[in-house]
Amino acid sequence: MTPRPPDGAPLSVRDVTKTFQAANGATVVALDGVSLEVAAGEMIALVGPSGCGKSTLLRLFAGLDAPTAGEILAGSEPIRGPNAERGLMFQDHSLFPWLTVRKNIQAGLVARGVLREHRHEVDEFMALAGLAEFADAYPHQLSGGMAQRAALARALVNHPRVLLLDEPLGALDQFTRMRMQDELLKLWVARGTTMVLVTHDVDEAIYMCDRIAIMTPRPGRVDRVIGVTLDRPRHRNDRAFLDLRGELLETLQLAGG
Ligand SMILES: Nc1ncnc2c1ncn2[C@@H]1O[C@H](COP(=O)(O)OP(=O)(O)OP(=O)(O)O)[C@@H](O)[C@H]1O
Ligand SMILES: [Mg+2]
């Protein structure tokens, strides 16, 4: 299972700092001199304790926010704003509450005026996400897991070259989660999309990713990047898998402390 030549774009983070003004006026250093290279078609996990800047970094990749200092690029172009080539799935599903599931999923296609050519894919992705029967439901009528799957379908249907996923599978039960992991992997193999996956699930990071960036909080830094060299498809009970899991959990415990 080796991805074909990637559609994905490489990403570069060069000495990026991001500070925020907290409510009490104090300065929060969300990211402190972070550098990271993500190869075209690579799947990389961002793992680390709450508040270490994972979502902040993802928003910078998405172009929803700008770094305070440093540079962030997609290919050779500095990221200056959102772009349909970079799909983002937020930590909370952020579906449009006034649109049905179908209309949410096709919103990006409508915005770009390409719905007619891609209409069949809306149905495909809805089926993939197990939502065919809920096409006409509104977000408030969905369970948390269903809403998350709808948001994932909405991101995928645009065929982004970079997919930025902030705990995309966090609200799913274990079985659905494992199935969606395999579906994401299939898409990744088929398209070579560059994927940045924020996850709290160490098993998910090992199962899915080429590398795992471990972040530490206050200030937010990339502490180390661990390569996952296990052959694909991976098996969650393999000795090597479990060894790496143990090693990662230990590292994370240190990062959290
Ligand atoms: N818009 C903002 N204004 C002020 N502070 C912010 C803002 N966004 C993020 N922060 C702060 O930056 C730090 C990093 O936040 P971020 O959301 O990136 O963390 P995270 O790693 O995604 O955490 P979690 O795992 O809980 O989602 C936190 O201290 C947070 O309070
Ligand atoms: Mg977050």
Description of the structure:
35% of the residues lie in helices and 25% in strands. By secondary structure, the protein is of the alpha/beta class. The protein folds into 2 domains: 11-85 and 160-256, P-loop containing nucleotide triphosphate hydrolases (Rossmann fold); 96-158, no CATH class. A 6-stranded mixed sheet has the order 6-7-8-3-9-10, sandwiched between helices. Strands 2-1-4-5 form a 4-stranded antiparallel sheet, with helices on one face. Helix 4 runs antiparallel to helix 5 and helix 7 (202-208) crosses helix 8 (239-256). The N and C termini lie far apart (37 Å). It binds adenosine-5'-triphosphate and magnesium ion. Adenosine-5'-triphosphate (ATP) is lined by residues 20, 22, 28, 30, 50-56, 91, 220.
Give the arrangement of secondary structure elements.
Blueprint: E1 11-21, E2 27-38, E3 43-47, H1 54-62, E4 69-74, E5 77-78, E6 86-89, H2 101-105, H3 107-111, H4 115-128, H5 144-156, E7 162-166, H6 174-191, E8 194-198, H7 202-208, E9 211-216, E10 221-227, H8 239-256
Parallel strand pairs: 3-8, 3-9, 6-7, 7-8
Antiparallel strand pairs: 1-2, 1-4, 4-5, 9-10
Helix pairs in contact: 4-5, 7-8
The chain binds adenosine-5'-triphosphate (ATP) and magnesium ion (MG).
